[in-house]
């Protein structure tokens, strides 16, 4: 099959997968009574727990709003209204108290705070979803709220983490997880895109800071991406320092590559591809069963997803041999985000390739 026909075939297949994934969440996750989305869904979409996780609410708002805004076949009023309902639920319920930028990690079905985490990710995904909702609706109040959340997250990461409520224990090893600069780089791109910040603007400075912090995780002469490094960018001793997550590394490389492309920095782009994508993929691939290992030890001391043709969407948890370990389609850490986002971005890339002469 010639190249163009092959690209067309893959675009059609991925498009059908994306339609099926969005259809699954649209049919089963919406809560018309209290707003927001259920994420704890069984294989057939049945709700097995009505707890609502804030970061998954923000992610689903982002997916719906982004698809509505950028993919013509998803420009449907019902999808935008679902995104708006999710955004309003977040504005109404996500914060743990009046005037506080801190968001809960989990909410009861009717929106009462149920659990708090001492991290930045609930607020970050609220900001991601609300900014995209503002772009899709044209209503600036969503984007203003997103910018306020971003400012709080940046303050916690770069200036004062005490508002997160995380105590500095004497025996704890100070470290920076890869997820922190990766998340901030994602947010800076989302909130700065099209705003005219430009080189030297406040979000451009943040993007540069994030890129440098990500490079700190590229250790051992560029042969390994480590999940945790010291605050000054050095490898840490022990299990904490040896941990790798190939999927995280590849995701960080994608954000870093997009930043390098915006900057016209070919050297950084090459570093993102080779150091954060190619080598982690090679090191993380399971040659016996296929797929990427979720966690690895860089020194080898210790130390996946299949679609469901019957009910739609993809399984999230597999054994090493590829057999489905859990049939649930969503939970505290998997919702309407990673699978639809991957399919959407692949379809977008294929569309661009097909437009080339």
Tags for this entry?
globular; 357 residues; three-stranded antiparallel β-sheet; 13 strands
List the helices and strands and how they pair.
Elements: H1 3-28, E1 40-41, E2 47-49, E3 52-53, H2 54-70, H3 77-93, E4 106-107, E5 113-115, H4 121-137, H5 140-158, E6 176-177, H6 179-192, H7 202-216, E7 218-219, E8 224-225, E9 228-229, H8 238-242, E10 243-244, H9 246-263, H10 266-284, E11 296-297, E12 317-318, E13 324-326, H11 338-355
Antiparallel strand pairs: 1-2, 3-4, 4-5, 6-9, 7-8, 10-11, 12-13
Structure report:
It is a single chain. With 357 residues, the chain is mostly helical. The chain contains eleven helices and 13 strands. A three-stranded antiparallel β-sheet has the order 3-4-5. Strand 1 and strand 2 form a beta hairpin. 39% of the residues are buried. About 1% of the residues have low confidence.
DSSP helix fraction: 40-55%
Walk across the major sheet and give the strand order.
3-4-5
Give the SSE string: HEEEHHEEHHEHHEEEHEHHEEEH
- How many helices does DSSP assign? 11
Alpha-carbon Rg, integer: 20 Å
Count of strand segments: 13
Give the N-terminus to C-terminus distance in angstroms.
18 Å
Q: What average pLDDT do the residues reach?
A: 90
Parts with pLDDT < 50 across at least 5 consecutive residues: 196-200
Strand content: 5-15%
